[in-house]
């Protein structure tokens, strides 16, 4: 990602700190008799830096929001879906976007996924890479520590957690 922006290769990784974490979560979505009324997961963006998702082999459910429309994310066999999280959006000064997504339930089949979240150490301060700030692209985000805690505080209130990092 850094190379694609002509930046020093480790400029994003350096913000993770020496004790970054990876958290894995299995998600089980049982059969739902009323999928039009029950979401598997409400619309949100990930609070991680990067999320890797191994989708169910047969049952779709993930949707991404683009231009105020929901689009289904197709299953690609044997593939990992890589998602940019809020923390990379902050580090990239908004160049890489953390997409809003949701999960639908299914009336006929259960769905199982595995999500792995890559998270900078909570004591590590993250912020936009200085080379991505100039007169044409001013700083959009302030530096923050322990973004995941901020994320859950805002998420519980139904607010977009990125508000906590905006200038």
Automatic annotation (TrEMBL):
Superkingdom of this protein's organism:
Eukaryota
GO MF assignments: dioxygenase activity; metal ion binding
**Could you tell me which Gene3D superfamilies the record lists for this protein?**
B-lactam Antibiotic, Isopenicillin N Synthase, Chain
Q: Where is the signal peptide?
A: none
Protein name in the entry: Oxoglutarate/iron-dependent dioxygenase
Residues annotated as domain Fe2OG dioxygenase: 20-120
Q: Does the keyword Iron apply?
A: yes
Q: Which UniProt keywords apply?
A: Dioxygenase, Iron, Metal-binding, Oxidoreductase
| Transferase keyword on record | no
């Amino acid at each position: 990602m850094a190379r694609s922006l002509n930046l020093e290769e480790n400029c994003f990784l350096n913000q993770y700190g020496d004790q970054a974490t990876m958290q894995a979560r299995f998600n089980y979505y049982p059969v739902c008799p009323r999928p039009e009324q029950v979401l598997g997961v409400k619309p949100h963006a990930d609070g991680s830096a990067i999320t890797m998702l191994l989708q169910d082999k047969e049952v779709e459910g993930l949707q991404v929001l683009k231009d105020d429309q929901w689009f289904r994310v197709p299953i690609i066999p044997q593939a990992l879906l890589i998602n940019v999280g809020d923390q990379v959006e902050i580090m990239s000064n908004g160049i890489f976007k953390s997409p809003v997504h949701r999960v639908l339930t299914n009336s006929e089949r259960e769905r199982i996924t595995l999500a792995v979240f890559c998270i900078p150490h909570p004591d590590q301060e993250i912020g936009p890479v200085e080379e991505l700030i100039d007169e044409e692209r001013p700083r959009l985000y302030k530096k923050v520590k322990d973004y995941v805690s901020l994320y859950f505080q805002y998420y519980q209130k139904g607010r977009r957690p990125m508000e906590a990092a905006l200038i």
